[in-house]
Amino acid sequence: MLQASAQAVDFKVCRHFGEGQEEATVRERLLNAGFKEEFMGEDRPPATHYHYGPSGGFYVEFLSPLTGGEYDRQGKRKTTQEVGGISSQRLRYIELLLIAPWEIELGEANGYQFKPAKIRVANPASFLTQKILIHGERDHSDQPKDLLYMHDTIELFSDRLGELRGVYGNEVRPQLHKKRVTELNRAPGELFGKVNDTIREAARMASGRSLSAEALAKTAFAGLRELLRPDEK
After folding, report:
1. Which one of 33, 59, 160, 199 has the lowest number of neighbouring Cβ atoms within 10 Å?
2. Which string of DSSP letters, residue by residue, matches 27-86?
3. What is the spatial distance between Cα 156 and Cα 146, in angstroms, rounded to a whole number?
4. For residues 96 and 129, is the Cβ–Cβ distance under 8 A?
5. How far is CA 13 from the centre of its chain?
6. What are φ and ψ of residue 43, in 5° steps?
7. Is the dihedral of CA 199, 163, 8, 207 positive or negative?
8. End-to-end alpha-carbon separation of the chain, Å?
9. How far apart are CA 20 and CA 84, in angstroms?
10. What is the pLDDT of residues 134-145, one digit of tens each?
11. pTM of the full predicted structure?
12. Number of helices and strands in the chain (H, E)
């Protein structure tokens, strides 16, 4: 499953992904295709980005589900794990990215130099829901980037918010515990209701764009409020 955001592409993998011969070929194929590994942080195994292109601005990373407690029996935080020869970042709620995925076709007709191939990507409603629910658990250095991703997703799909609200209400929300739904209902105000240092840093990360912290907060607040609006009774 692909999760595309800005210049990053995330792959969701399960524990049995690539067992046997396929495990090694995932990494090998990336490296053979010209991707370069970048090891992040001090975790073991380290989180890994696979960069592509002259600037390395586009990268692929892998995600796997975080289940149970946040720490293992030795008191070590469960941030990464090795799956199929690759290092994946462990996050909660990534199963939401599998709900009602969008299918797109890539090929020469839309600028890709290979035979047409169909792939599934996480729908924006699921993407935003997952980003909100993990926000409080994210490292402080990652939170501004996540807020920018939320803003950019809302801006990109602003003319389809009504459709996405239907996806959230009919497909995503029924899979959530009531406490999580309440948390989501509060999210627009808690995340974007007031400009703070995290929002200012998110705006600064929007390189090449004239995006103020105030504009970022206003757009994201309005979009999330529309997307997550409780049903009228």
Report:
1. 33
2. HHHHHHTT-EEEEESS-SSPEEEEEESSS--EEEEEEEE--S-SB-TTS-B--EEEETTE
3. 15
4. yes
5. 13
6. -70, 155
7. negative
8. 36
9. 8
10. 999 888 989 999
11. 0.79
12. 7, 9
